[in-house]
Write a structure and sequence with these properties.
243 residues; alpha/beta; Rossmann fold; four-stranded parallel β-sheet; globular; disordered C terminus
């Protein structure tokens, strides 16, 4: 959705993927100007090299959106070492290194933007998906640090924190419809809202280091578990959607 929205707004889009070659190529073909690159973000050095190679051939690369992540289950009672190792690499180490490479090598007119997708869980924490959330906390910490390190005030580093939007993990459709409305507005947050927020941040209107929440107020709640499990525990009987 983010790549499509940038493309439809007139941007040239470089779409990164790991294994989804056909889906990425189909998306690129549907946009006015787009291309695809492949990289496994478990390899931090390869991720940085990918960014450097793109920067070397693009004369005006203004925005890097770090939105790739893995979302596997472990809990506060039992950290899974394999889940943690992958999460801290893909969700924190690789995107932080990619942002550093972008800021070191990309050329742009009017300043560069890094948009890092975090999670409303940073404020509304619960014990589920422990390694995922820990890694997102680590990644979020880089936003203000990297913002403070920029010598050019035209360069901006932003966080973008979504709430429940699309089905996650092993959710059934009816569970998604229920869990997605467990927020202050009692509404499903449309992924297009996240894409629109990314386009807004790309213009640089906010101070560098800020994080924008797009979650219908979910981060203002205190939820004892991930909404996936809250929906499952309360059953799937649902009231009609709000208009």
């Amino acid at each position: 959705m983010i790549a499509a929205s940038f493309g439809q707004a007139g941007w040239h889009v470089v779409i990164h993927h790991k294994d989804s070659h056909d889906e990425a190529e189909a998306l690129a073909a549907a946009l006015p100007s787009a291309e695809c690159v492949q990289c496994d973000l478990c390899d931090i050095a390869a991720a940085a090299a990918m960014i450097e190679a793109i920067a070397a051939r693009l004369p005006d690369w203004r925005v890097l959106v770090n939105c790739a992540a893995v979302f596997h289950e472990d809990t506060a009672e039992r950290l899974d070492p394999a889940v943690f190792a992958e999460a801290v690499t893909v969700n924190a180490g690789a995107p932080a290194r990619m942002a550093q490479a972008f800021l070191a090598h990309a050329r742009a007119d009017g300043g560069r933007r890094v948009i890092d997708l975090t999670d409303q869980k940073l404020i509304n924490s619960n014990p589920d998906f422990f390694s995922y959330t820990m890694a997102k906390h680590a990644f979020s910490a880089t936003i203000r640090m990297m913002a403070a390190a920029q010598a050019d005030p035209a360069d901006r580093i932003y966080g973008l924190a979504p709430g429940a939007m699309l089905p996650s993990f092993d959710q059934l459709p009816e569970e998604h419809l229920k869990s997605g409305r467990m927020n202050l507005l009692e509404r499903l947050t449309d992924p297009q809202e996240l894409a629109d927020a990314a386009l807004f941040l790309a213009e640089g209107w906010l101070a560098s280091g800020e994080t924008l929440f797009v979650d219908s107020g979910q981060h203002l709640l205190s939820q004892p578990r991930d909404v996936l499990y809250l929906a499952r525990q309360s059953g799937i009987a649902m009231a009609p959607p709000l208009p």
